[in-house]
Amino acid sequence: MPYRTLIQPFLVAALLTTAVTLGQALAADDVERSVHFRYGQPNGFQEVRRDTEGSISVHFEYHDRGRGPNFDTQYRLAADGTPLQVDSKGVDYLKAPFSDHFSLVDGQARWHNAAENEQRAVSTPVFYLSANRPPEEFRLLVRALLKAPGQRINLLPGGEASLRALGEETVRGKAGTRSLILYAVSGFGAPLYFWQDTGGDFFVGSTVPEGWEDILPQLQKFENAKDQQLRRERAKTLTQLVDGTLAIEHVRVFDPDRLTVKVGQTVLVTAGRIAAIGNDGSVDIPKQARRHDGRDRFLMAGLWDMHQHLYGDDGLLDLAAGITTVRNMGTPPDDLAALIDGYQSGADIGPRVVKAGLIDGRGPYQSRAGTFADTPEEAAEQVNFYADQGYVQAKIYSSVKPELVQEIVKAARSRGMRVSGHVPASMTAEQFVAEGVNEINHINFLFLNFFSDSVQDTRTPARFTIVAERGAELDLSSLRVRNFIELMRRRDIVCDPTVANFEHKFLARPGVTSPTYAPMMNRLDVLWQRSIRSGGEALSVPPGMDARNRESFERMVQMIGVLHRSGVTIVAGSDGVGFMRLPRELELYVSAGIPPAEALRLATLGAARVMKRDNEYGRIAPGYVSDLILVDGDPTINISDIRKVRTVLLGDRMFDSAALWKSMGMAPAP
User: Fold this and answer.
1) Helical packing angle, 376-388 and 405-414, nearest 10°
2) Which residues contact 207 (CB under 8 A, 6 or more apart)?
3) Would you list the domain boundaries of the chain?
């Protein structure tokens, strides 16, 4: 498992690892230079400068497929290590300009940025967390925690961080030997880990001192052992094993075949499968059976998220939201294998995982979550690698050479695998379909099919910005669009829209909560809320283009309705943070004109059918795997009720949704 990070997975800066030059106390104008890594590859740097007055200046940047932040931050600290002043300015992950300023004077804390302009009286030490944080800020937080009484500090704009030591390890590097202590920092959901020597000069968190990279395997082994221990303890506390027979009584059962709901039903579960279903009082319940009163709640098969990139604690949050199966569309294979092992053994909490292996071409915009192919031989080799590891699908990424698409398709078909993907640069969606793929990921690539005159390189953020600028122009009733959609229907091409992801990109603005995340805002911790209010990964909108972005996004939603009515198969995927985005994805499908019951079907039985698992998953019927969720309300009437998951059954394991949310520092669904 990769090193844990300070902020939740969808915050871009927290997805990364960094190697940093750290030393003893620095003289004036001395500089610590950092090399920035993602998935083990350098792609940026950090420079830290300290002067004799104690001020700290940090420059941080990294480069990710044409994206990535570039900013400067200055800190002035109190004697206890907490910030008295912070000034930050630059561009964020999607190159939008930002500035963030904080000061603490005479007990008055003030901060302002594009999303916030606040003032608060404080009487105890507080640590301000910048809106965009360089890795150095995490080091400053740990140092302040070590000085704080009880190793606890209040945070601004809210919350509290705490620190505890987990163990000590001695490491040997080229520069000598160090004795490091592993600390767990709490207050941000799951524990976050940092290593430090007793003097605080040598620090490894998402950083490691330059020249000491060889110690990482040793530290990672130690850290992973501690992390797995904590996960096992958590899983033991939150998992209820279903021994013998479970009778779920007095429920309303959703039938995805008929799109109907039967009231007053009892469902028997034995050994992780459905044994019987019938009217209350008509099912023979064994005397020793465990009885669960469904309280007239809505019982349905668990949701499938058909586009995720699993990382960290995503699996637990998926189950809390009723997502019992995830199609993983790109995570480093070793990292994914470790996650799945934990889920399957019960040492960790997470859904079932259908594996799709990401293949990209090498180059400046290459993905770092998969493998690479630049020749026909490499294409076949990578497909076979994934097939041998039990992957059922290959995912083509943006830097794959167009002439290799058919090679990947050919190799995948020989191994019984499906093929989906981004439409590679220099190809259109029509050409991609002609090469024999099964599926197109992300609805923006359908739009780009008609804007090839404007897009020079779809590996860059242009694949977002051009659709935001021109999407509203696309006439969905035009002959060319209708012919393309008919081609998709005739070739049985599946569309994986991930439209909620584009809603946030197109509509989020600093200080305004996008509809994507608004329903969850009050349940999240302050840092989640803050990132969302700041605009997150929203596109930088040129003056006068705000209305056009909204119109273009609405055209995307309309396209989903046209696809559905035209007979094109749609699968629901979140492209990350499934617990927040998947419910919104289904709401947007309903906005597109898909009836709520049909939206539920495509997120359960329909997804299982696409992956050829509908003989065991997606229905509540005898013999089917008992992946079930109990929901308040009726999402066949109000699709937003899908957010009110109360109980989750994953085979022979049962979970209380509220307890899962609370374990991650989040409020349960109302």
Assistant:
1) 40
2) 17, 18, 19, 20, 22, 34, 135, 138, 139
3) 12-237, 423-594
